[in-house]
Design goal:
InterPro entries: DEGP_PDZ, DEGP_PDZ_sf, PDZ_sf, Peptidase_S1_PA, Peptidase_S1_PA_chymotrypsin, Peptidase_S1C. GO terms for molecular function: serine-type endopeptidase activity. Pfam families: PDZ_3 (PF17815), Trypsin_2 (PF13365). This protein has 3 domains: about 5-280, Beta Barrel (Thrombin, subunit H); about 290-390, PDZ domain (Pdz3 Domain), CATH 2.30.42; about 410-555, N-terminal domain of MutM-like DNA repair proteins. The chain contains 11 helices and 37 strands. The radius of gyration is 26 Å and the shape is globular.
Protein backbone atom coordinates (compact mmCIF):
# COMPACT_ATOMS: atom_id res chain seq x y z
CA UNK A 1 0.00 0.00 0.00
CA UNK A 2 1.14 3.55 -0.58
CA UNK A 3 2.57 5.18 2.50
CA UNK A 4 0.87 8.54 2.01
CA UNK A 5 -1.96 9.88 -0.10
CA UNK A 6 -2.12 13.22 -1.82
CA UNK A 7 -4.23 14.80 -4.55
CA UNK A 8 -3.44 15.21 -8.23
CA UNK A 9 -5.14 18.00 -10.13
CA UNK A 10 -6.19 17.54 -13.72
CA UNK A 11 -6.13 20.87 -15.56
CA UNK A 12 -8.48 20.11 -18.44
CA UNK A 13 -11.36 18.47 -16.57
CA UNK A 14 -10.87 20.29 -13.24
CA UNK A 15 -10.89 17.01 -11.31
CA UNK A 16 -8.61 15.58 -8.68
CA UNK A 17 -7.44 12.05 -8.20
CA UNK A 18 -6.02 10.48 -5.07
CA UNK A 19 -2.43 9.38 -5.51
CA UNK A 20 0.35 7.80 -3.57
CA UNK A 21 3.15 10.19 -4.38
CA UNK A 22 4.27 12.77 -1.90
CA UNK A 23 3.53 15.74 -4.13
CA UNK A 24 0.67 16.67 -6.47
CA UNK A 25 1.20 16.49 -10.22
CA UNK A 26 -0.57 18.65 -12.77
CA UNK A 27 -1.52 16.89 -15.96
CA UNK A 28 -1.45 19.02 -19.06
CA UNK A 29 -4.93 20.07 -19.99
CA UNK A 30 -4.73 19.88 -23.76
CA UNK A 31 -1.87 17.57 -24.70
CA UNK A 32 -0.15 17.04 -28.05
CA UNK A 33 0.02 13.89 -30.16
CA UNK A 34 2.37 11.79 -32.30
CA UNK A 35 1.79 10.38 -35.81
CA UNK A 36 2.42 6.70 -36.45
CA UNK A 37 3.09 4.81 -39.69
CA UNK A 38 0.99 1.73 -40.57
CA UNK A 39 3.39 -0.41 -38.49
CA UNK A 40 4.07 1.55 -35.35
CA UNK A 41 6.19 -0.76 -33.25
CA UNK A 42 9.32 1.35 -33.54
CA UNK A 43 8.44 4.66 -35.17
CA UNK A 44 5.79 7.32 -34.90
CA UNK A 45 4.74 10.78 -36.00
CA UNK A 46 3.97 13.28 -33.30
CA UNK A 47 1.27 15.85 -32.73
CA UNK A 48 1.21 18.73 -30.29
CA UNK A 49 -1.43 21.05 -28.86
CA UNK A 50 -2.22 23.84 -26.50
CA UNK A 51 -2.40 21.85 -23.32
CA UNK A 52 0.02 21.86 -20.41
CA UNK A 53 3.38 22.18 -22.17
CA UNK A 54 7.03 21.81 -21.45
CA UNK A 55 8.37 25.31 -20.96
CA UNK A 56 11.88 26.40 -20.02
CA UNK A 57 11.49 29.84 -18.44
CA UNK A 58 15.21 30.53 -18.75
CA UNK A 59 14.87 30.99 -22.49
CA UNK A 60 17.31 28.16 -23.24
CA UNK A 61 14.71 26.18 -25.20
CA UNK A 62 14.98 28.25 -28.36
CA UNK A 63 18.66 27.44 -28.59
CA UNK A 64 17.75 24.05 -30.03
CA UNK A 65 16.49 25.56 -33.27
CA UNK A 66 18.59 28.74 -33.33
CA UNK A 67 21.98 27.76 -31.96
CA UNK A 68 24.86 30.17 -32.47
CA UNK A 69 28.43 28.91 -32.22
CA UNK A 70 30.55 31.52 -30.52
CA UNK A 71 33.80 29.99 -31.74
CA UNK A 72 35.49 32.64 -33.90
CA UNK A 73 32.20 34.55 -33.99
CA UNK A 74 30.82 32.37 -36.79
CA UNK A 75 27.08 31.71 -36.30
CA UNK A 76 25.46 28.54 -37.60
CA UNK A 77 21.97 27.14 -37.32
CA UNK A 78 21.93 23.81 -39.15
CA UNK A 79 23.30 21.47 -36.50
CA UNK A 80 22.32 17.84 -35.94
CA UNK A 81 20.02 19.00 -33.15
CA UNK A 82 18.38 21.49 -35.48
CA UNK A 83 17.87 18.79 -38.13
CA UNK A 84 16.20 16.56 -35.55
CA UNK A 85 13.88 19.38 -34.50
CA UNK A 86 13.07 20.13 -38.14
CA UNK A 87 12.01 16.50 -38.53
CA UNK A 88 9.87 16.80 -35.42
CA UNK A 89 8.16 19.92 -36.78
CA UNK A 90 7.02 17.90 -39.79
CA UNK A 91 5.77 15.17 -37.47
CA UNK A 92 3.74 17.20 -34.97
CA UNK A 93 0.11 18.18 -35.44
CA UNK A 94 -2.28 20.18 -33.30
CA UNK A 95 -5.35 18.37 -32.00
CA UNK A 96 -8.65 20.18 -31.42
CA UNK A 97 -11.13 18.34 -29.22
CA UNK A 98 -14.74 18.99 -28.23
CA UNK A 99 -15.74 17.00 -25.17
CA UNK A 100 -18.64 16.74 -22.76
CA UNK A 101 -18.28 15.02 -19.39
CA UNK A 102 -21.24 13.52 -17.53
CA UNK A 103 -22.53 14.77 -14.20
CA UNK A 104 -22.24 12.15 -11.47
CA UNK A 105 -24.59 13.98 -9.10
CA UNK A 106 -27.20 14.18 -11.92
CA UNK A 107 -26.18 11.11 -13.95
CA UNK A 108 -29.02 11.45 -16.48
CA UNK A 109 -27.44 14.58 -17.97
CA UNK A 110 -24.07 15.83 -19.25
CA UNK A 111 -22.15 18.91 -18.22
CA UNK A 112 -21.72 21.77 -20.67
CA UNK A 113 -19.63 21.13 -23.78
CA UNK A 114 -16.01 22.28 -23.63
CA UNK A 115 -13.28 22.68 -26.20
CA UNK A 116 -9.62 21.79 -25.99
CA UNK A 117 -6.53 21.57 -28.13
CA UNK A 118 -3.66 19.11 -28.08
CA UNK A 119 -0.52 18.04 -29.92
CA UNK A 120 -0.78 14.70 -32.05
CA UNK A 121 -2.29 6.52 -41.29
CA UNK A 122 -1.99 7.11 -36.91
CA UNK A 123 -1.44 9.83 -34.39
CA UNK A 124 -0.24 9.25 -30.83
CA UNK A 125 -1.41 11.74 -28.21
CA UNK A 126 -2.44 11.83 -24.56
CA UNK A 127 -5.64 10.11 -23.45
CA UNK A 128 -6.70 13.12 -21.42
CA UNK A 129 -6.92 15.31 -24.53
CA UNK A 130 -9.61 13.08 -26.06
CA UNK A 131 -11.33 11.86 -22.87
CA UNK A 132 -15.14 12.15 -23.15
CA UNK A 133 -14.65 13.47 -26.68
CA UNK A 134 -17.51 14.22 -29.04
CA UNK A 135 -15.51 15.65 -31.96
CA UNK A 136 -11.78 15.70 -32.82
CA UNK A 137 -9.90 17.74 -35.45
CA UNK A 138 -6.16 17.86 -36.25
CA UNK A 139 -4.03 20.48 -37.99
CA UNK A 140 -0.49 20.17 -39.35
CA UNK A 141 2.27 22.61 -38.52
CA UNK A 142 2.20 25.51 -40.98
CA UNK A 143 -1.21 24.57 -42.40
CA UNK A 144 -4.54 26.39 -41.88
CA UNK A 145 -6.60 23.29 -42.72
CA UNK A 146 -8.16 21.12 -40.04
CA UNK A 147 -8.95 17.45 -40.67
CA UNK A 148 -11.43 15.24 -38.88
CA UNK A 149 -9.83 12.50 -36.78
CA UNK A 150 -11.24 9.33 -35.24
CA UNK A 151 -10.14 7.89 -31.91
CA UNK A 152 -8.88 4.34 -32.50
CA UNK A 153 -7.73 3.34 -29.01
CA UNK A 154 -7.42 4.97 -25.59
CA UNK A 155 -5.37 3.85 -22.60
CA UNK A 156 -6.42 6.02 -19.68
CA UNK A 157 -4.05 4.32 -17.21
CA UNK A 158 -1.00 5.22 -19.29
CA UNK A 159 -2.52 8.48 -20.62
CA UNK A 160 -2.03 7.54 -24.28
CA UNK A 161 -4.42 7.51 -27.25
CA UNK A 162 -4.27 6.65 -30.95
CA UNK A 163 -6.06 8.73 -33.58
CA UNK A 164 -6.60 8.04 -37.28
CA UNK A 165 -7.20 10.46 -40.16
CA UNK A 166 -8.84 9.17 -43.35
CA UNK A 167 -7.87 12.06 -45.63
CA UNK A 168 -4.84 11.30 -47.85
CA UNK A 169 -4.15 15.04 -48.14
CA UNK A 170 -3.42 15.19 -44.45
CA UNK A 171 -0.52 12.75 -44.71
CA UNK A 172 1.22 14.50 -47.61
CA UNK A 173 4.59 15.83 -46.43
CA UNK A 174 4.35 14.31 -42.96
CA UNK A 175 7.44 12.70 -41.42
CA UNK A 176 7.56 9.80 -38.98
CA UNK A 177 9.60 9.71 -35.80
CA UNK A 178 11.39 6.64 -34.47
CA UNK A 179 11.17 5.49 -30.88
CA UNK A 180 14.47 5.54 -29.01
CA UNK A 181 15.48 4.30 -25.57
CA UNK A 182 15.03 5.50 -22.01
CA UNK A 183 17.44 8.44 -21.63
CA UNK A 184 20.12 8.43 -18.96
CA UNK A 185 20.31 11.01 -16.20
CA UNK A 186 21.46 14.47 -17.34
CA UNK A 187 20.78 13.72 -21.01
CA UNK A 188 19.16 16.64 -22.84
CA UNK A 189 15.71 16.34 -24.41
CA UNK A 190 13.67 18.83 -26.45
CA UNK A 191 9.88 18.88 -26.23
CA UNK A 192 7.77 20.07 -29.16
CA UNK A 193 4.23 21.33 -28.69
CA UNK A 194 1.70 24.16 -28.75
CA UNK A 195 1.80 25.81 -25.31
CA UNK A 196 -0.69 28.43 -24.19
CA UNK A 197 0.08 31.99 -25.10
CA UNK A 198 0.36 31.49 -28.85
CA UNK A 199 -0.87 29.51 -31.82
CA UNK A 200 2.46 28.52 -33.38
CA UNK A 201 4.55 25.48 -32.56
CA UNK A 202 7.05 25.77 -29.72
CA UNK A 203 10.25 23.93 -28.80
CA UNK A 204 11.52 23.78 -25.22
CA UNK A 205 14.50 22.04 -23.66
CA UNK A 206 15.12 20.10 -20.49
CA UNK A 207 17.53 17.67 -18.85
CA UNK A 208 16.58 14.24 -17.48
CA UNK A 209 16.75 14.37 -13.69
CA UNK A 210 14.99 11.15 -12.61
CA UNK A 211 13.55 7.89 -13.99
CA UNK A 212 11.16 6.04 -11.68
CA UNK A 213 7.53 4.88 -11.30
CA UNK A 214 5.28 7.91 -10.89
CA UNK A 215 1.59 8.48 -10.34
CA UNK A 216 -0.06 9.24 -13.69
CA UNK A 217 -2.58 11.99 -12.95
CA UNK A 218 -5.13 11.10 -15.61
CA UNK A 219 -5.55 7.41 -14.87
CA UNK A 220 -4.03 7.29 -11.37
CA UNK A 221 -1.80 4.36 -12.35
CA UNK A 222 1.73 3.96 -10.99
CA UNK A 223 3.97 3.54 -14.06
CA UNK A 224 7.49 4.45 -15.12
CA UNK A 225 7.95 8.13 -15.98
CA UNK A 226 10.87 10.42 -16.82
CA UNK A 227 11.28 13.63 -14.84
CA UNK A 228 12.90 16.58 -16.61
CA UNK A 229 13.87 20.01 -15.33
CA UNK A 230 11.21 21.87 -17.32
CA UNK A 231 7.51 22.39 -16.70
CA UNK A 232 4.84 20.73 -18.82
CA UNK A 233 2.41 23.57 -19.48
CA UNK A 234 -0.95 23.47 -21.29
CA UNK A 235 -0.02 22.88 -24.91
CA UNK A 236 3.09 20.70 -24.80
CA UNK A 237 1.50 17.70 -23.14
CA UNK A 238 1.21 14.95 -25.73
CA UNK A 239 4.07 16.33 -27.79
CA UNK A 240 7.23 14.32 -28.46
CA UNK A 241 10.33 14.60 -26.30
CA UNK A 242 13.23 14.41 -28.77
CA UNK A 243 16.65 13.02 -27.82
CA UNK A 244 19.05 13.14 -30.74
CA UNK A 245 16.97 12.14 -33.75
CA UNK A 246 14.60 9.80 -31.89
CA UNK A 247 11.66 10.04 -29.52
CA UNK A 248 12.49 9.57 -25.85
CA UNK A 249 8.90 9.92 -24.68
CA UNK A 250 5.65 11.88 -24.70
CA UNK A 251 5.13 14.92 -22.47
CA UNK A 252 2.08 14.60 -20.21
CA UNK A 253 2.16 16.30 -16.78
CA UNK A 254 4.10 18.47 -14.36
CA UNK A 255 4.65 18.84 -10.63
CA UNK A 256 2.18 21.23 -9.04
CA UNK A 257 3.74 23.92 -6.90
CA UNK A 258 7.24 23.38 -8.31
CA UNK A 259 8.98 25.32 -11.06
CA UNK A 260 10.43 23.66 -14.15
CA UNK A 261 9.63 20.07 -13.26
CA UNK A 262 7.85 18.10 -15.95
CA UNK A 263 7.22 14.45 -16.78
CA UNK A 264 7.27 12.46 -20.01
CA UNK A 265 5.92 8.98 -20.73
CA UNK A 266 8.94 6.77 -21.58
CA UNK A 267 9.30 4.50 -24.60
CA UNK A 268 8.70 1.18 -22.73
CA UNK A 269 5.24 2.39 -21.69
CA UNK A 270 4.53 3.64 -25.22
CA UNK A 271 5.61 0.34 -26.79
CA UNK A 272 3.50 -1.65 -24.33
CA UNK A 273 0.45 0.44 -25.27
CA UNK A 274 1.11 0.20 -29.02
CA UNK A 275 1.85 -3.53 -29.06
CA UNK A 276 -1.38 -4.23 -27.20
CA UNK A 277 -3.37 -2.24 -29.74
CA UNK A 278 -1.51 -3.83 -32.66
CA UNK A 279 -2.04 -7.40 -31.42
CA UNK A 280 -5.57 -7.09 -30.06
CA UNK A 281 -7.07 -4.17 -31.96
CA UNK A 282 -7.75 -2.35 -28.70
CA UNK A 283 -6.09 -1.19 -25.49
CA UNK A 284 -5.54 -4.18 -23.20
CA UNK A 285 -4.23 -2.52 -20.03
CA UNK A 286 -1.29 -3.07 -17.69
CA UNK A 287 -0.93 -6.20 -15.59
CA UNK A 288 -0.99 -6.44 -11.83
CA UNK A 289 -0.14 -9.16 -9.33
CA UNK A 290 -2.97 -7.94 -7.12
CA UNK A 291 -0.69 -7.73 -4.09
CA UNK A 292 0.01 -5.19 -1.40
CA UNK A 293 3.55 -5.68 -0.09
CA UNK A 294 5.55 -4.37 2.85
CA UNK A 295 9.34 -3.77 2.93
CA UNK A 296 11.37 -6.10 5.17
CA UNK A 297 14.12 -3.69 6.18
CA UNK A 298 13.53 -4.13 9.91
CA UNK A 299 15.89 -6.74 11.44
CA UNK A 300 13.31 -8.09 13.92
CA UNK A 301 10.71 -8.46 11.18
CA UNK A 302 13.21 -10.39 9.10
CA UNK A 303 14.10 -12.68 11.99
CA UNK A 304 10.43 -13.38 12.70
CA UNK A 305 9.84 -14.56 9.13
CA UNK A 306 13.17 -16.47 9.00
CA UNK A 307 14.60 -14.22 6.32
CA UNK A 308 18.36 -14.74 6.55
CA UNK A 309 20.96 -12.13 5.63
CA UNK A 310 21.60 -13.84 2.30
CA UNK A 311 17.97 -13.46 1.29
CA UNK A 312 16.03 -10.31 0.45
CA UNK A 313 12.40 -9.72 -0.44
CA UNK A 314 9.08 -8.11 0.46
CA UNK A 315 6.26 -9.29 2.72
CA UNK A 316 2.82 -10.00 1.24
CA UNK A 317 0.25 -8.17 3.37
CA UNK A 318 -2.90 -8.24 1.20
CA UNK A 319 -4.05 -10.18 -1.89
CA UNK A 320 -6.82 -9.20 -4.30
CA UNK A 321 -9.40 -12.04 -4.25
CA UNK A 322 -9.92 -11.67 -8.02
CA UNK A 323 -6.23 -12.15 -8.87
CA UNK A 324 -4.63 -15.45 -9.83
CA UNK A 325 -2.15 -14.88 -7.01
CA UNK A 326 -5.02 -15.25 -4.52
CA UNK A 327 -5.18 -18.98 -5.31
CA UNK A 328 -1.43 -19.49 -4.95
CA UNK A 329 0.15 -17.02 -2.55
CA UNK A 330 -0.66 -16.47 1.11
CA UNK A 331 -0.55 -13.57 3.50
CA UNK A 332 2.91 -13.36 5.15
CA UNK A 333 4.68 -14.97 2.19
CA UNK A 334 8.01 -13.34 1.32
CA UNK A 335 8.56 -12.68 -2.40
CA UNK A 336 12.28 -13.16 -3.02
CA UNK A 337 12.50 -12.79 -6.81
CA UNK A 338 10.37 -12.01 -9.86
CA UNK A 339 11.28 -13.85 -13.07
CA UNK A 340 14.73 -14.55 -11.65
CA UNK A 341 15.39 -10.92 -10.68
CA UNK A 342 16.16 -10.61 -6.93
CA UNK A 343 13.92 -8.18 -5.03
CA UNK A 344 15.63 -6.04 -2.39
CA UNK A 345 14.20 -5.52 1.08
CA UNK A 346 12.86 -2.13 -0.02
CA UNK A 347 11.00 -3.66 -2.97
CA UNK A 348 13.38 -2.49 -5.70
CA UNK A 349 15.22 -4.34 -8.46
CA UNK A 350 18.34 -3.36 -10.50
CA UNK A 351 17.77 -0.96 -13.40
CA UNK A 352 20.60 0.28 -15.63
CA UNK A 353 23.99 0.57 -14.01
CA UNK A 354 23.55 1.67 -10.39
CA UNK A 355 19.93 2.77 -10.70
CA UNK A 356 17.08 0.87 -9.05
CA UNK A 357 13.34 0.74 -9.67
CA UNK A 358 10.40 -0.87 -7.85
CA UNK A 359 9.66 -4.42 -8.96
CA UNK A 360 6.12 -3.29 -9.89
CA UNK A 361 7.65 -2.04 -13.14
CA UNK A 362 8.58 -5.61 -14.10
CA UNK A 363 4.99 -6.66 -13.42
CA UNK A 364 3.46 -3.83 -15.46
CA UNK A 365 5.59 -4.66 -18.51
CA UNK A 366 4.11 -8.16 -18.75
CA UNK A 367 1.44 -8.81 -21.37
CA UNK A 368 -2.04 -9.90 -20.22
CA UNK A 369 -2.27 -13.67 -19.61
CA UNK A 370 1.54 -13.92 -19.58
CA UNK A 371 3.02 -15.94 -16.72
CA UNK A 372 5.67 -14.86 -14.23
CA UNK A 373 7.89 -17.03 -12.04
CA UNK A 374 7.94 -15.99 -8.38
CA UNK A 375 10.41 -17.29 -5.82
CA UNK A 376 8.66 -17.25 -2.43
CA UNK A 377 9.76 -17.91 1.15
CA UNK A 378 6.96 -19.55 3.16
CA UNK A 379 7.47 -20.72 6.73
CA UNK A 380 11.22 -20.73 6.19
CA UNK A 381 11.08 -22.83 3.01
CA UNK A 382 11.64 -21.62 -0.55
CA UNK A 383 9.04 -22.28 -3.24
CA UNK A 384 8.64 -21.32 -6.89
CA UNK A 385 5.22 -20.49 -8.32
CA UNK A 386 4.11 -19.65 -11.86
CA UNK A 387 1.38 -17.01 -11.76
CA UNK A 388 -0.71 -15.72 -14.68
CA UNK A 389 -0.84 -11.92 -14.80
CA UNK A 390 -3.67 -9.73 -16.07
CA UNK A 391 -5.11 -6.26 -15.52
CA UNK A 392 -7.24 -5.97 -12.37
CA UNK A 393 -10.03 -3.52 -11.71
CA UNK A 394 -10.53 -1.96 -8.25
CA UNK A 395 -13.83 -2.29 -6.39
CA UNK A 396 -14.42 1.45 -6.81
CA UNK A 397 -13.40 2.60 -10.33
CA UNK A 398 -10.76 5.33 -10.41
CA UNK A 399 -12.02 6.80 -13.68
CA UNK A 400 -15.08 6.49 -15.93
CA UNK A 401 -14.07 8.21 -19.16
CA UNK A 402 -15.91 7.82 -22.46
CA UNK A 403 -19.00 6.29 -20.86
CA UNK A 404 -22.14 7.54 -19.17
CA UNK A 405 -22.63 6.89 -15.44
CA UNK A 406 -25.15 4.27 -14.33
CA UNK A 407 -28.15 5.18 -12.20
CA UNK A 408 -31.50 3.81 -11.07
CA UNK A 409 -34.39 5.83 -9.64
CA UNK A 410 -37.26 4.35 -7.64
CA UNK A 411 -39.71 6.45 -5.64
CA UNK A 412 -37.31 9.40 -5.87
CA UNK A 413 -34.43 7.39 -4.41
CA UNK A 414 -31.41 7.80 -6.72
CA UNK A 415 -29.09 4.78 -6.62
CA UNK A 416 -25.63 4.86 -8.23
CA UNK A 417 -22.44 2.77 -8.01
CA UNK A 418 -19.70 4.45 -6.02
CA UNK A 419 -16.85 5.72 -8.22
CA UNK A 420 -14.02 8.17 -7.70
CA UNK A 421 -15.51 10.50 -10.36
CA UNK A 422 -18.62 10.63 -8.16
CA UNK A 423 -16.45 11.76 -5.24
CA UNK A 424 -14.78 14.34 -7.50
CA UNK A 425 -18.13 16.13 -7.69
CA UNK A 426 -17.49 17.31 -4.13
CA UNK A 427 -14.83 19.67 -5.48
CA UNK A 428 -11.07 19.95 -5.85
CA UNK A 429 -10.57 19.03 -2.20
CA UNK A 430 -12.87 16.00 -2.49
CA UNK A 431 -10.66 13.84 -0.26
CA UNK A 432 -11.57 16.10 2.67
CA UNK A 433 -15.06 17.27 1.61
CA UNK A 434 -16.65 14.01 0.41
CA UNK A 435 -18.32 11.61 2.89
CA UNK A 436 -15.47 10.12 4.90
CA UNK A 437 -16.82 6.57 4.93
CA UNK A 438 -17.35 6.49 1.17
CA UNK A 439 -13.91 7.95 0.57
CA UNK A 440 -12.18 5.35 2.74
CA UNK A 441 -14.03 2.51 1.04
CA UNK A 442 -13.15 3.88 -2.37
CA UNK A 443 -9.47 3.85 -1.50
CA UNK A 444 -9.06 0.69 0.54
CA UNK A 445 -11.70 -1.98 -0.06
CA UNK A 446 -11.06 -4.86 -2.47
CA UNK A 447 -13.70 -6.70 -4.53
CA UNK A 448 -14.74 -10.11 -3.27
CA UNK A 449 -16.25 -11.33 -6.55
CA UNK A 450 -16.40 -10.35 -10.21
CA UNK A 451 -18.85 -7.60 -11.11
CA UNK A 452 -19.17 -6.36 -7.53
CA UNK A 453 -20.04 -2.69 -6.95
CA UNK A 454 -20.67 -0.53 -3.90
CA UNK A 455 -24.18 0.81 -4.50
CA UNK A 456 -25.09 3.99 -2.65
CA UNK A 457 -28.20 6.11 -2.21
CA UNK A 458 -26.89 9.23 -3.91
CA UNK A 459 -29.80 11.57 -3.18
CA UNK A 460 -33.54 11.71 -2.54
CA UNK A 461 -35.80 13.58 -4.99
CA UNK A 462 -38.42 14.81 -2.54
CA UNK A 463 -42.00 13.57 -2.69
CA UNK A 464 -44.71 12.50 -0.26
CA UNK A 465 -43.71 8.88 -0.82
CA UNK A 466 -40.17 9.37 0.55
CA UNK A 467 -40.74 12.09 3.16
CA UNK A 468 -38.50 11.50 6.17
CA UNK A 469 -35.87 9.58 4.19
CA UNK A 470 -34.02 12.62 2.83
CA UNK A 471 -31.27 12.39 5.47
CA UNK A 472 -30.35 8.84 4.49
CA UNK A 473 -28.52 9.83 1.32
CA UNK A 474 -24.83 9.00 0.79
CA UNK A 475 -25.19 5.65 2.54
CA UNK A 476 -24.35 2.27 1.02
CA UNK A 477 -27.26 -0.04 0.19
CA UNK A 478 -26.53 -3.43 1.72
CA UNK A 479 -29.74 -5.42 1.12
CA UNK A 480 -33.07 -5.31 -0.72
CA UNK A 481 -35.77 -7.42 0.96
CA UNK A 482 -33.06 -9.36 2.84
CA UNK A 483 -31.10 -10.09 -0.38
CA UNK A 484 -27.51 -8.82 -0.43
CA UNK A 485 -26.86 -6.35 -3.26
CA UNK A 486 -24.05 -7.33 -5.65
CA UNK A 487 -24.17 -4.32 -7.95
CA UNK A 488 -26.54 -1.69 -9.34
CA UNK A 489 -27.98 -4.01 -11.99
CA UNK A 490 -28.70 -6.58 -9.28
CA UNK A 491 -30.44 -3.94 -7.15
CA UNK A 492 -32.51 -2.89 -10.17
CA UNK A 493 -33.63 -6.48 -10.83
CA UNK A 494 -34.49 -7.03 -7.15
CA UNK A 495 -36.67 -3.92 -7.08
CA UNK A 496 -38.32 -4.46 -10.47
CA UNK A 497 -38.98 -8.12 -9.70
CA UNK A 498 -40.45 -7.51 -6.25
CA UNK A 499 -43.68 -9.43 -5.52
CA UNK A 500 -44.04 -8.31 -1.91
CA UNK A 501 -46.40 -5.64 -0.62
CA UNK A 502 -43.51 -3.77 0.99
CA UNK A 503 -40.03 -3.05 -0.29
CA UNK A 504 -37.23 -2.79 2.27
CA UNK A 505 -33.75 -1.32 1.78
CA UNK A 506 -31.10 -1.99 4.44
CA UNK A 507 -28.41 0.70 4.48
CA UNK A 508 -25.22 1.51 6.38
CA UNK A 509 -25.52 2.24 10.11
CA UNK A 510 -28.43 -0.20 10.31
CA UNK A 511 -30.70 2.39 8.66
CA UNK A 512 -33.83 1.11 6.93
CA UNK A 513 -36.12 2.41 4.18
CA UNK A 514 -39.53 0.76 3.76
CA UNK A 515 -41.94 1.62 0.92
CA UNK A 516 -45.30 0.36 -0.23
CA UNK A 517 -44.25 -1.18 -3.53
CA UNK A 518 -47.28 -0.29 -5.66
CA UNK A 519 -47.50 3.26 -4.30
CA UNK A 520 -43.77 3.77 -4.81
CA UNK A 521 -43.96 2.49 -8.38
CA UNK A 522 -46.71 4.97 -9.24
CA UNK A 523 -44.85 7.79 -7.48
CA UNK A 524 -41.75 7.16 -9.60
CA UNK A 525 -43.51 8.36 -12.76
CA UNK A 526 -44.63 11.69 -11.34
CA UNK A 527 -41.23 12.32 -9.76
CA UNK A 528 -39.49 11.73 -13.09
CA UNK A 529 -41.87 14.13 -14.82
CA UNK A 530 -41.47 16.79 -12.14
CA UNK A 531 -37.68 16.72 -12.47
CA UNK A 532 -37.70 16.31 -16.29
CA UNK A 533 -35.75 13.06 -16.11
CA UNK A 534 -36.27 11.01 -19.29
CA UNK A 535 -35.88 7.55 -17.76
CA UNK A 536 -35.82 5.85 -14.39
CA UNK A 537 -32.63 4.00 -15.29
CA UNK A 538 -29.50 4.46 -17.37
CA UNK A 539 -29.23 2.82 -20.78
CA UNK A 540 -26.87 0.08 -19.57
CA UNK A 541 -29.60 -1.21 -17.21
CA UNK A 542 -32.26 -1.28 -19.91
CA UNK A 543 -31.82 -4.87 -20.98
CA UNK A 544 -34.80 -6.98 -22.00
CA UNK A 545 -35.49 -8.18 -18.48
CA UNK A 546 -35.47 -4.71 -16.95
CA UNK A 547 -37.57 -3.33 -19.80
CA UNK A 548 -40.16 -6.06 -19.23
CA UNK A 549 -40.44 -5.36 -15.53
CA UNK A 550 -40.20 -1.60 -15.63
CA UNK A 551 -41.49 1.05 -17.94
CA UNK A 552 -41.60 3.90 -15.49
CA UNK A 553 -41.18 6.75 -17.92
CA UNK A 554 -42.60 10.24 -17.69
CA UNK A 555 -45.13 9.42 -20.44
CA UNK A 556 -46.99 7.09 -18.06
CA UNK A 557 -47.23 9.73 -15.34
CA UNK A 558 -50.48 10.10 -13.49
Amino acid sequence: MLASLRHLRRISAHRRLLVGSFSPLNRASRPPAILLPPSFSSSLCSASSSVKSLDDTTGRATSIAHHVLEDEGVPYRYTDAYAAIELALDSVVKVFTVSSSPSYFLPWQNKSQREGTGSGRRILTNAHVVADHTFVLVRKHGSPTKYKAEVQAVGHECDLALLTVESDDFWDGMSFLELGDVPFLQEAVAVVGYPQGGDNISVTKGVVSRVEPTQYVHGAAQLMAIQIDAAINPGNSGGPAIMGDKVAGVAFQNLSGAENIGYIIPVPIIKHFLSGVEENGKYVGFCSLGLSCQPTENVQLREHFRLSQERTGVLVSKINPLSDAYKILRKDDIILAFDGVPIANDGTVPFRNRERITFDHLVSMKKPEEKALLKVLRDGWEHEFSICLRPLQPLVPVHQFDKLPSYYIFAGLVFVPLTQPYLHEYGDDWYNTSPRRLCERALRELPKKAGEQLVILSQVLMDDINAGYERLSELQVKKVNSMEVDNLKHLCSLVEGCHEKSLRFDLDDERVIVLNYNSAKMATSRILKRHRIPSAMSADLMDEEAATFSNVKTASSR
